[in-house]
Design goal:
Layout (H helix, E strand, L loop, with lengths): L3 E13 L6 E13 L3 E5 L6 H8 L7 E6 L2 E2 L5 H10 E4 L13 H11 L6 H15 L15 H13 L5 E5 L7 H18 L2 E6 L2 H7 L2 E6 L2 E7 H6 L4 H8 L41 H5 L5 E3 L2 E3 L2 H4 L2
Parallel strand pairs: 3-8, 3-9, 6-7, 7-8
Antiparallel strand pairs: 1-2, 1-4, 4-5, 9-10, 10-12, 11-12
Length: 320
């Protein structure tokens, strides 16, 4: 295993509910590790806290509690000039390639913004040359230098967002559903671009997604999240072949089967509503939807335990 790049311990992020003396428990005491050069996929249903955790890890959102370490240095409370070198190493590609780009700025200015902020290039001419190099690297033609975001397709806009993210040569990029707003044919192009950039630059990705086919293609490891908690972490091939947590099993069963002979196979589907993050269930947060739940599941929260190369938070694992 490579060296640890980013690590969070006991990460908590809560949001106050306006007009009520309660909070939204978006992320609840999560431990997570990213290794240099890997792609770690973070998967789960909408509203489980994936995007919030991604932002909290690179401090786009301040954590309510817990610690974040970058190459062993505690960056949780660093500010200003002390945090600037770490901010430079951690960038983000957003889900909506149109909303994440300033519609009043030309492509040259969008990509150049981080270069200017960190004074990377000595002259405006050098900045323009660097922008052209980045455009070529992500597959955007140089004659589009002075166009505005609305003049591009969704796939081209996402390429521009990727060029901006890699401009400062970061080590870590949080990819927050970067292809979910794109056509399927364009998705594959952007995913291949991300893989190529990772190989060429040694990038580390935290790839947030709910599309398991995309996750299987892009990731080395997968972390499964449910209602603010991680329930299973493991190598992609092993997790897809033999899921251990019931929730992981249900997610994989929900994938449509390409083989017409397997479409009629009997499979169990999740029932009931997702519990509220304002008032999460006691014990295991999945127990209200789990067909295997016992009284212990409702009373006692399972701890994340090591099972081979896998980490699983489920009381049933101990019984095997």
């Amino acid at each position: 295993m490579s060296e640890i790049l980013l690590e969070a311990k006991g990460l908590v992020k809560e949001f106050p509910v306006k007009g009520r003396h309660k909070v939204v428990h978006a992320v609840s005491g999560v431990d997570i590790t990213l290794y240099q050069g890997e792609s770690l996929a973070l998967v789960g249903e909408s509203g489980c806290g994936k995007s919030t955790m991604g932002r909290a890890l690179i401090r786009l959102l301040p954590a309510t509690a817990g610690r974040v370490y970058y190459k062993g240095t505690d960056i949780t409370n660093l500010k200003g000039e002390d945090f600037a070198p770490y901010r430079r190493q951690m960038q983000m590609v957003f889900q909506d390639p149109y909303a994440s780009l300033n519609p009043r700025m030309k492509v040259r200015d969008i990509i150049a913004e981080p270069l200017v902020t960190y004074r990377v290039c000595p002259t405006p001419e050098a900045t323009t040359q660097r922008v052209l190099e980045l455009m070529a690297e992500v597959g955007v033609q140089r004659e589009f230098l002075d166009r505005y975001p609305h003049q591009f397709s969704g796939g081209q806009r996402q390429r521009i967002g990727i060029a901006r993210a890699i401009a400062l040569r970061p080590e870590l990029i949080i990819c927050d559903e970067p292809v979910s707003a794109l056509d399927v044919s364009v998705q594959s192009q952007v995913l291949n671009l991300l893989k190529d950039l990772q190989k060429e630059r040694g990038l580390t990705y935290l790839f947030i997604s709910h599309d398991l086919s995309v996750v299987k293609f892009i990731s080395h490891r997968v972390a499964v999240m449910f209602l603010g908690k991680l329930c299973e972490v493991g190598k992609t091939s092993e997790l897809f072949a033999h899921p251990l947590h019931p929730y992981t099993r249900f997610l994989l069963d929900a994938i449509p089967k390409a083989d017409p002979h397997r479409r009629e196979e009997e499979k169990r589907l999740l029932t009931g509503e997702v519990p509220s993050p304002i008032d999460p269930p006691s014990g295991c947060r999945f127990h209200t939807r789990c067909p295997y739940a016992t009284e212990r599941c409702a009373a006692e929260e399972p701890i994340m335990q090591q099972t081979g190369d896998r980490q699983v938070a489920c009381h049933r694992i101990k019984e095997k």
